[in-house]
Amino acid sequence: MAVTMKDVANLAGVSTATVSRVINGSAHVAPEVTAKINDAIDKLGYSPNVLGRGLRRSETRIILAIIPSAEHSFYNNILSGMQDEASKRGYDLLIGCSGDNSAAERRLLSMMENKIVDAAVLLGTHMSADDLSAYNEKYNIALACERIPDAEVLTVTVDDEAAAYAAVDLIIKKGHKKIGLLTAAGTAVSALDRRQGYENALADNKITYREEYIYMGTYDFSSGEKAYRYFSQLVDPPTAIFCISDLLAAAVIKSYAAQAAKSLSGGRYFKVCGFDNIAFSGLLTPGLTTVNQPAYEIGQTVIAKLIEKKGNPSANTEHIKMPFEIIERESL
Fold this sequence. Notes:
This protein has 332 residues and is an alpha/beta fold. The chain contains twelve helices and twelve strands.
């Protein structure tokens, strides 16, 4: 026989209504009573039918997070912040991967229409500003870590342009005037913003922009390796490289080490700055100077704001810019 909510209530010595409030994350249950109910749930192995409950109540208390790729560790801390904030508020987090494919992204978003999830957060999207704004009129959605210009949707990011400016300005203050940019082709607004920050920092410091110092690749590690070879072969190479992600910066550092190991003359050495401050950045040799995004706090903030506008999706369409900082290590 399946364990029921009534069984849990009997073991805990409370009413089924109290058990329901605990399962739904209500704050109006005494901590000691909550502990007794959770203990009873564990002992009986009770598992509530979340989907059935959601259909009955027209809500599931599940939030969908859509990531473009499962390969990039930067998303991990954002998802962790989202999970913790959702759990604190009595929600669960469901993670879907679009594979950076617009059709898959729309299929995942249809879970809102089918009432499988209550809301969705996109960590990168191919949708236009008009499409996102239209979705937000009907459904509770938000963007995290990637903005779409003119989209009337709750958005939580860092100021990518300002952060890139600060990083390149630091490189210049370290004495460099020949600065390469390792970026990614495509439509990701964060990449475009970071390139703009790079260009603005050069202009404000009266350093001539040089097209040959721009390498347009992808976000893959192999793109950083190719960029290292490209910059190394220039007649007048840069002395420092600003990379729009830590993964690309790590590839440049590792490429130099590999080249130096197999060549008596060593490889071309570049000072390097990354972006994101992901887990391994401080473990590289040399340690990577980078822009720290408060990824965990981005995740927390987007969930908190998303839940606050439940029932009125278009109530909050602000763009929240989280603080950033430059983490200086030995690579610069």
